[in-house]
Design a protein that fits this description.
Strand content: 15-25%
Structural class: alpha/beta
Helix content: 25-40%
Number of helices: 15
Shape: globular
Length: about 500
């Protein structure tokens, strides 16, 4: 999947009439400058009323010859009247690669959000926006950034794409953005936080080390629905780890849909049992490969039936190794339903055409158009950002061109290029006060929670440093903010995290 954690194809937002002050090409190569647009607002967040400004604009990323490689679009929320150097500031980004940051922005971290049902499902259209009392804007200023080629961010051409649409160039571009923003707005004295979702967490873990190397200290990193090492997500003939780490999520989802025999209602107890079984029984059994035979193999089949709700014939056909698409297909096949990938609680019938939808995720079917419409309403309407470009919720061009290693698309990618755990560890050991908060959705099959737990548990840190790394599992899917209960839980945890890690700096 080339690191594409948001797998659904996300259409672009229809642009408004071209603005005279902005370039009008609407294509890549449009990296002209334009004035920031500032609007004034007020809101109440965690019971605290504040007045704030929203600034929408683009910052240039310079190429090696001094020309502009890209313009990166951002929306910044800053509290009015606060001394710039005293208030925390958080930079936020989504992933993909190829996804715009409107997901985080309008999902539940910003001051306005898409109105969804409490369980995260989408009401009948038209899409509405609503105030977000759970936003963390009462604790920190927020800067939402669109990666080059997504949202309103644009690349100057193929040469710039070659430099920026790869892991190292991507990190350098974001580091340059952060430094430029801090300098332009006099924020070098502010407590600094990085917040990434999905591949954005991979990006922010790597960015933390780049910034430290450039002399920019960081107070904390928030990782939502993380992917820090793709070896925990992508199995191979000699890597059975992803099958093991996904099992507790399978069990939780199967129990939610009442597909286990006997039925299990205590999801937390089931999760702990599945974690123990997959670590102490399932993993060692898979390590035997073709040597797993007879009664011992049958015990594993029986255990997988107990925890996944799948039939023994399916488990045997798949050689005891159930990947995510197979689980999605088979869990409720007798009902004619596909189970969601980004949120296993959501289900739907498969589309008729497998040609148009080769990998269909019913959890994204309604969310994608809802967020697309919301981005159009908010950016063009409420924030009055008038630009003759379509807002790209998802860029297939970025997703297909993005490379983890240097060189052309056919170059061999080293294992070290497909992880940023080493970079995060490097950041932590250079600052014993740095804190990390990882938030995972229990029903997420895109980045299963145990894959992150396993990754963080294997980060080489002394105990006193490891104590600064916290994992929170919430009852939600990949976009955990879609669920009202999970949103409140994760944002409350983030508030506590910021209060603790910024203590003494204000």
């Amino acid at each position: 999947m080339a690191g594409a954690l948001h797998a659904a194809d996300k259409p672009e937002v229809a642009a408004p009439k071209p603005a005279a002050a902005q370039p009008a090409s609407g294509e890549d190569g449009d990296v002209g400058s334009g004035a920031d647009v500032v609007t004034r607002h007020s809101g109440t967040f965690h019971g605290r009323a504040i007045k704030y400004s929203a600034t929408a604009g683009r910052l240039p990323i310079m190429g090696p010859d001094g020309s502009v490689d890209a313009q990166m679009f951002f929306v910044a929320y800053t509290q009015d009247g606060a001394a710039p150097g005293t208030r925390p500031i958080t930079f936020l980004v989504n992933g993909g690669p190829g996804a715009a940051t409107a997901w985080l922005h309008l999902g539940g971290i910003g001051p306005r959000k898409v109105r969804l049902n409490p369980d995260g499902s989408v009401p009948a259209p038209p899409v509405r926006l609503t105030d977000n009392p759970d936003s963390i804007l009462d604790r920190t200023d927020l800067v939402f950034i669109d990666a080059p080629g997504t949202g309103f961010s644009r690349l100057s051409g193929d040469a710039a794409k070659g430099r920026l649409l790869e892991k190292r160039g991507d990190l350098d571009a974001f580091a340059s953005f952060v430094q430029t923003y801090l300098r332009k707005n006099g924020r070098f004295g502010s407590p600094l936080y990085l917040y990434g979702e999905s591949y954005g967490s991979f990006r922010m873990a790597g960015l933390s080390d780049v910034l430290i190397r450039r002399g920019v200290p960081i107070n904390g990193v928030v990782l939502l629905s993380s992917a820090l090492d793709f070896a925990t997500l992508q199995p191979t003939n000699i890597n059975d780890l992803p099958y093991q780490l996904t099992l507790p999520s399978y069990a939780s989802i199967a129990a939610f849909h009442n597909r286990l025999t006997p039925p299990r209602t205590d999801i937390d107890a089931l999760r702990r049992e599945a974690e123990e079984w997959t670590t102490n029984v399932y993993g060692p059994a898979l390590a035997k490969g073709n040597k797993l035979l007879g009664a011992e193999r049958q015990r594993i089949v029986d255990g997988l039936v107990r925890f996944t709700g799948l039939s023994p014939s399916v488990i045997e056909t798949e050689n005891l190794r159930i990947d995510v698409p197979q689980f999605m297909k088979y869990l409720q096949a007798d009902r004619g339903l596909v189970t969601g990938r980004t949120d296993g609680r959501l289900v739907g019938p498969p589309p008729a055409s497998a040609v148009e939808e080769p990998f269909y995720d019913p959890a994204m079917g309604d969310l994608t158009p809802a967020f697309t419409a919301a981005a159009s309403q908010y950016l063009f309407g409420e924030l009055r950002y008038d630009i003759s470009l379509p807002y790209r919720m998802y860029s297939r061009d970025v997703a297909t061109r993005f490379r983890f290693g240097r060189g052309d698309a056919d170059a061999v990618v080293a294992d070290s290029d497909r992880q940023t755990l080493t970079a995060l560890q490097s950041t932590i050991v250079k600052n014993r006060n740095l804190k990390v908060l990882a938030i995972q959705g229990l029903y997420d099959l895109a980045t299963p929670y145990m894959s992150v737990k396993y990754t963080l548990d294997h980060m080489p840190l002394p105990p006193d440093y490891a104590a600064n790394v916290e994992l929170l599992v919430v009852p939600a899917g990949h976009m955990a903010y879609d669920d009202a209960r999970a949103l409140r839980e994760m944002n409350d945890a983030t508030v506590r995290f910021i209060d603790a890690s910024a203590l003494g700096t204000r």
